[in-house]
Batch of 3 targets.
Target 1
Amino acid sequence: MYGSGNQPVIVLKEGTERSKDKEAQFNNISAAKAVADAVRSTLGPKGMDKMLVNTIGDVVITNDGVTILKEIDVQHPAAKMVVEVAKTQDSECGDGTTTSVVLAGELLKQSEELINANVHPTVITNGYKMASAKAVELLNEIAVDVKSDKVLKQVAATALTGKSVGEEEEALADVVVKACKSVEENGKVDTKNIRIQKKIGGVIGDTYLIPGIVVDKEKVHSRMPTRVEKAKIALLSGPLEIKKTEFDAQIQITDPTAMSSFLAEEENELKAMVEKIKAVGANVVFSQKGVDDLVQHYLAKNGILGYRRLKQSDLEAISKATGATIVGNVMELTKEDLGTAGAVEEKQVGEDGMAFITGCKNPKAITIFVRGGTEHVLEEVERALNDAIRVVGVAIEDGKVVAGAGAPEIELELRLMEYASSVGGREQLAIEKFAKAMEIIPWTLSENAGIDPIDSIIKLKNAHEKKNAKAKYYGIDLDSGEAVDMLAKNVVEPLRVKVQAINSADEVANMILRIDDVIASRRAPPTPPQGAGAPPMM
């Protein structure tokens, strides 16, 4: 940059990198497309898995879009924005993360031609906004109502298809729907109340629903009962032991009798804790903190089952399932604070003991107990179940679903093309590109299934252009490659998943398109450790 007299005016610090106009836009678009391409092959029931190895050698095998994007260390700022799309989609809906990222990448790819044709990015973003709003309106038109649990089961099965759950989609879908219906309150499903407890062993088909809570802890004393019927449960966030003082203190005892009375007093205090638990009628105790050895002995002597060092989330789940109140100090425990359960039983699962709290009346927190052959299998099943739980919860809350397998995307493409011609002006070009971008979902589904994507798109368009009542539900059958009514094939997805995917993709595409200047400061070199590379002391 030069001022009067051709003297250079230095504005930016030395080493700062700057790219402007089309160069900046195309760099950002390329980075976003690279992220989309990284997860594209995982889309759909025939999608492939990724093996991710982190810096310490831990391995994750998954085809879950958000997990892949969280695990890979993305550096480019535009790419990071696309990763945020996946995270938002995951937090809002639990599924559709790959769809939203692939769609964002395709919207940016379609915009390249318009930028090359000197269509201003503001015009493109305006057109994309109009198309996005119209697409959401059209999705609401083609959505169908959830009329039964059968539809919810189809939603769960669709979310599980293509995940690493073997041939167990139907059984797991049934478990997921029962779990969501159990914790539903006033049409809302708090999915945090559905706990997933994993244990290596058995096969995926051994996974089952427990209308209660499972805690991965063993009883604190071997002589405690293994099973307690008609359990009255006390939940303590405080310790069942004498706390050490918070400041340094010394007790000097010179007389042996004083020592005896000091120990006797300590024992009486611990014994009083157990007497209090017994007096209120509790026969099972869960403590968030420690349990003294002497307390363990007296609890066992009185036939009371005890567990220690539970997580806060465990206590809260037990509270929701049994109706117990979490108490801070055991001496403040009352009968009203106790929860009830049909039974609390310690079962041996593999090499470990686990506490099973069952027979709860109308439990509002329940557990899906997952089994599998290896840790990697268990983790992927857990991710698949989390997705399925979230989408079933969303379907219950909204009561609307759309057909899957590319059916809504092709319908949106055709209807948006009609809408574009009614808008006119330069925005028409952007709306047409938005419509064209919708093709990427059925295209990718076909590609991942080994089917010719061009044939698939042609068949789908022909089916949708017939304009009969069921034409809008036709998606691509990934076994035969034909256009098939997806509602009849039981392939359905919650409306919110599609709406969120389109809105998120549109927002990030617009944000990236509006960037015309990237100024990146040079990174400071890493500070050498103290003493390393320092000049010698004179």
Note: The two ends are 45 Å apart (CA to CA).
Target 2
Amino acid sequence: MRVEILSLLFLSLWLQSTKADPGTSAPPNIILIMADDMGWSDIGSFGGEIATPNLDRLASEGKRFTQFYNNGKCTTTRASLLTGLYPRNGGKGIELLTDNMVTLGEALKDAGYATGLSGKWHNGSKAPHRPFDRGFQSSYGLWDGCCNFFDPSMQDPPFKGSRVRFFGQNDQRITDFPENYFTTEAFTDHAVATIRRHVENGTPFFHYIAHTAPHYPLHATPEDIAKFEGRYAAGWDELRKARYERQVEMGLIDPDKFPNPGPNPNNRSWESIPEEERAWEARRMEVYAAMVYRMDAEVGRVLDLLDGLKAAENTLVIFLSDNGACPEEPGGRLTDQLFGPSEFYGHVGPDWAYAQNTPLRLYKSTSHEGGIATPLLARWPNAIEAGTSTDAVGHIIDFMPTFLELAGGAYPLSRKGLPIIQEEGVSLASVLKSENTEFERPAPLFWHWAGSRAIREGDWKLVWEKGGEKGWELYQLGADRTETVNRAEGQRGLVQRMAKKWEAWATLTGIKY
């Protein structure tokens, strides 16, 4: 009897000694925050002059990824982020989410997580493609691509009077919005209420906050705009120069590996702008900066909530942008628009967008670095060393395997009786925790959008910009991240091998090219 008691005592002590601290072993809560059309250098930790103290806090208390990628376009990025898969069928509409795919909402719910979405969905507004059809138990926001920030029920003038589809929980369409409404704040209101409920219930949760800021239309409150009045009177050329110098000074970039590519051939110099238009141009950037500032303040509300609920230590918070800065000008330059108020509709245009992506080439909808590179910040106090940085190459397709590994979940082989396309990303859990400082991707990365295409394998990147006038261009990103020296002529064999891999991938994913 005594031997049995001693054996039980030793077994109990052994189990206690081997049991991990629940503060560090419990699956983390996960909050994924995404900006819309924000440039690589717009936030402070990536060299921006816009005040972003809360995002800077994520950087100082977490890890900065300097080589992280999206898909260069709103819809395709969102589809890949949700599924861990490259876009299928050429990236057309609701075909981006199909029955043979599983979403983060579905996979993490299966792993025991509560799930929620606040903000922009842009992957279908009819069954079975809505958020609540695809695993998100609580959802609120915009099922379309963009909307009026003050009154989402208003029509979008450049898009032939199309009306926005804005929904609350399940299929409750919202058409009336109160005074002083602003989407960036409203998305956060829903996120805060939902996260609070999950924490109080003691349930691990995944919450996806997809802001529309700073996507056009350029809308901000007078108070926020006032903070940036006069800040951009020197123009976009000086802004890009100042950001580049700041990035070098803070050690974000090595000028030998990030050669300054100079002015974009498609852009105008600030000096070429007529004097009478310069104030109007500067106003565009002032309002844009105000939108980034307000989004940062709303991120701060989420961080404060986690602190107040004592949930910050075991919550992974990730912030990124869906593509590079946006050069689009639907409806034209619209010089009669006074940016900021709800009754006007405007955008920053290609000249400011190029500066917002400092020091990278081009912008949204292209496969050069300015289109597909995103600033990414990750904070998880229980596991991520504060103030660290990594140049590990990551991609939004990596979120699915990363989150499932952290959650203790499993990627399904089938769902509802149908075989599921298997994961195409890789887990970055070991990179987050600094357990793998020599991380190398086991397979190339691929891109395609409207004729623009690219493949990255190791440090080599092959890119074909839309139109195909130049054909394939080859860059060695380890020495030339800004893509200034095309090495295709001297590396014809490499070009052919990489091009064949891209073509095989295009066939696999249903791209017609």
Note: The longest helix spans residues 275-308.
Target 3
Amino acid sequence: MNTLISNIDIGIIIGYLVLVLVIGFIISLKTRTGEDLFLGGKSFGWGLIGLSLFASNISSSTIIGLTGAAYTTGIVNSVYEWMSGLPLIIAALIFVPLYLKNRITTIPEFLNLRFDYRSRLFFSFITIVSTIMIDTAGTLYAGILVLQEFFPGLDMKTTAYVLALIAGIYTAFGGLKAVVYTDAIQAIILIVGCSIMAYMMFSDLDFSWSTIVASAPENHFSVVRPLDDKGLPWPGLMLGVPILGFWYWSTNQYIVQRILGAKDLNNARWGVILAGFLKVIPLFIMVIPGAMAISLFPGIVEGDKVFPKLVVEVLPVGLVGIVLAGLISAIMSSIDSALNSSSTLVVIDFIKPNVKNLTEKQVVNAGRICTVVFMLIAARWAPQIEHFPGLWDYLQQMFSIIVPPIAVVFLLGVFFKRGNRHGAFWTLVIGTLLGVFFFILGKYELWSVHYTINVGIMFLLSAIIFISVSLMTAPPASHQIDSLTFNPAYIKEGVQEMPWYANYINQMIALVLLIVGILIWLW
């Protein structure tokens, strides 16, 4: 096989893959129950949760996309990263205590408790399809495209199956605990590898921020853009980004599952806040290096080529292997999280309620079978994406449009006690159909509003549907929803007699100040 990297770097990558499989095998020996497989035995501390949240969120497409976008259009898209701390704070304040107190295994299960089984199944089905067909397959496809830059001639289909197989094996047998432990390792490798590359690029520019800014196009380092900006107009920054962030960090099974596996409420909250701080790091080790590349490597036409160019040109032998191991880590951590969360949804939301008297062994086997099936589907679908030019952009935009009804049902569901099961179900159904309608209009260029602004519009329409239908139908019984709606007392629960530095509220304040500082800096 032709390759642009050394045998030493290849050896590092192979060693990493072997390590991941060994960890998965060791953990699989202790995975005996459904709770072990799906929630890691509820044994996760804050460090593992924070690192796993970070790693699962950073996919290969994120690394390539952030670096390439910073090179071609500026750092505006980095807001999806460092502003993640705000929706994570909402999760820690409001939703984490509700989820843990009700001892749920899946997020759709919360909808079942708050509303009814219809909303649970609808939301679960939408989540499974989008996770496997968009997130997992998209991560595989984007990752393979990048690996082909380093290994010319790498076969798309074979590589898809190999990556999916490795992630699928340790996920199927080790469950969420294997996912979280490998994610923690992957997060560290990714941060270390990209940090080294960023440091070396800074040194090439004499560690001068003024030199970096002066060599870039005007507004390249600004995140507040005009209304006609194609990347992220300012209304989208104010409306779309927070809603998309809330959905992703508070209602997405793919992400929230490791929070559900926390050993207690405090560790869950600390892990969420740690993830918020970690999400600031990509700005400095992925985004700004991409913007700096304009000075060091001018003339790169395709944004997706920027990251591979930096790895090959900036790093010496050995360090290339570490960074590529980090890239593969990003691919694997996204795949394993998606596979585990999807199998959890199928078993907990569809199989267990309809098949009575399942033994723990049968639950575990069902979860493992689902993981393998989803692994094969994602690997089979990923190579097909290249035959549909432009489809992936459309899918991502449609994915963003269908988020608002979900966000409305959860947000209003915990604050608007008058909201009922009919309001929730019809908001999900009608909101999703409206999302498809806007997607079709956009495809035929009949609706040109930026998709982040669409998110705000759709959120408002979905809220009107939820409130209207709920008010026109019978209210829920108050005693049935008391433990499923916001209670201010939950905010201070567990922080009494705790040192100031361990109080998650103080940690949140520090995180907010950091985010506001970055916003002012990059305004």
Note: The chain has a mean pLDDT of 87.
